[in-house]
Design goal:
Elements: H1 2-17, H2 22-26, H3 34-52, H4 76-95, H5 104-134, H6 140-154, H7 163-186, H8 195-208, H9 219-246, H10 254-259, H11 261-266
Helix pairs in contact: 1-3, 3-8, 3-9, 4-5, 4-6, 5-6, 5-7, 6-7, 6-8, 7-8, 8-9
Length: 275
């Protein structure tokens, strides 16, 4: 599926915009890919999660989510470091999309993109932390996913917003991640790493809010682009996942799910989870 997604689906979608296709001609604006990159991946992931179904024991008979043992997050510090690496890489992801740094104007634009990217990620962290604290204990994992949601949201337009606007755009992305996760759980969709809220939902938000800071963008055009890209990707991905499920299969064996593939394939326990 990864080969099909990266080799066929992504080139088609990106050709609509960055290849001078119909979205580009319509005036669609997506600077570094909130929709073209992130929503595309999120829509494909949503289709996959729906086709594969939840992990064994993920939901109780009443439909409530249940903790999976022994597959709890094994190292929150490592997860945090991973997000920090992503956050750093996002400077190249967004800043590099300026595609030039040979003039003072380009250099200033890149520096502004860096600042807004940083602030949007921070906004996502703080908003997710605040929301989870208001409804219980501070959820560090949601704060980390909120960071990614904020970064995804600002990716569609990291140059035009003011620093305050960048924080707010990222903060809304963080809130979307928290409530998007809850929505998927209520629908019994098992999104293991929270990819759909962070990339699909936050990507849609980031793309639709572009006209608020970029006067050259049109909300109607942004909406058309979001619907076209996500509908196309979801439908095609759903078909591909379905074909794979009925042919080569998608799920692990029951033993593999319950014991872990480290044990069933190599006979070695990869993670010894201790508090």
């Amino acid at each position: 599926f990864a080969a099909i997604l990266s080799g066929i689906i992504y080139p088609i979608v990106m050709g609509w915009q960055w290849g001078g296709g119909w979205l580009a001609e319509a005036g669609f604006s997506d600077f570094a890919g909130s929709t073209l990159v992130h929503s595309t991946g999120g829509a494909a992931a949503l289709a996959g999660a729906m086709i594969i179904g939840p992990r064994l024991g993920r939901f109780t008979k009443s439909g409530a989510p249940a903790p999976l043992k022994p597959f709890a997050a094994s190292s929150i510090p490592l997860v945090t470091i991973g997000v920090f690496i992503l956050w750093l890489g996002w400077f190249g992801f967004n800043g590099g999309s300026q595609l030039a740094m040979g003039t003072a104007d380009d250099a200033i634009a890149v520096s502004k993109i860096f600042i807004n990217t940083l602030l949007a990620g921070a906004g996502g962290v703080m908003a997710a932390g605040t929301v989870t604290k208001l409804t219980g204990k501070t959820d560090v994992v949601q704060m980390l996913n909120g960071c990614i949601g904020g970064l995804v949201a600002i990716t569609a337009e990291p140059l035009a917003p003011s620093p305050l606007a960048a924080i707010l755009i990222g903060a809304v992305g963080g809130v979307i991640v928290v409530y998007g996760t809850k929505m998927l759980l209520s629908m019994k969709i098992d999104d293991v790493v929270g990819a759909v809220p962070a990339h699909l939902f936050a990507g849609i938000w980031g793309t639709l809010i572009v006209p608020a800071t970029n006067a050259d963008a049109s909300f109607s055009t942004q909406l058309i682009g979001v619907i076209a890209v996500n509908a196309f990707v979801f439908i095609v991905a759903y078909i591909i996942w379905s074909i794979m499920k009925s042919t080569v299969g998608l799920r692990l064996s029951k033993e593999g799910e319950l014991k872990g593939t480290d044990v069933t394939e190599t006979g070695v326990i990869a993670y010894a989870i201790r508090d």
